[in-house]
Amino acid sequence: MPKFLFWNINRHDIAGFVRHVAREADADLLILAECRIKLSKLLETLNDEKPHYHYAWGACRHLLFLTRFPPDQLKPLRESPRVSVRSLTMDPHKSILIAAAHLPSKMNYSDESQFLESVALSRMIDEAEAKVGHYRTVLMGDLNMNPFEPGMIGARGGLHAVMNRRIAMRDNRVVQKKKYKFFYNPMWNHLGDTGAGGTFFFENAEPVCYFWNMFDQVLLRPDLLHRFSPKQVRILTEVRKVPLVDSEGVPDKEMASDHLPVLLELKF
To answer: Which residues on adjacent β-strands are paired with residue 32?
Structure first.
């Protein structure tokens, strides 16, 4: 069962932490956002015991792909500065799409602008699915939106990601006489006290404050849900018994990053 790990490392020089997280998670694919670590140093650190990870080239400058698969099995299909949609072939007769994104933050973009970014992302995924002729798609990344925002749940242009697996298994729904495919969003299960709380913590003095945000997410098309359990998605809060959160339970941005890593185990 392959494992995919996404982590926004907040421009920190934490090659050692990345190595520990990748090894503890036993990740086959490691996707990093906001990575400013020199590639040669990162690969040397990851592979200090024995060679495991290879750099998988791509034109998306906001994301770095490191894989234990042969890099030519992870082929870019659609890319932009913030999005990479790739075909991963692990079986000669079957492939999946791995879409990864690091969308603009709320500090720089309005809600309306963020929604338009989700429109562009959804279109890129649709184009890649049409090219390969299947809908076995995973989307991972720092989407800088919570699961309940219009860009995440909207059908006409948004990602159409629903919280309920049974609904997602319907495959699509019709809006204004047009069919829109679902994504299933298992990250709803991790909001609040039942999980880590979220992946990003922000507290302000405004009347509306969520505190915990679920910006880093994993979405799956219905075609991948037949053998999927929500337990196959985890938010990592410690690595080798070293916490990635501080004494208040929020991401320790001084020690590691202001985002927590997200791990997906997938059967397909």
So the answer is: 7, 64
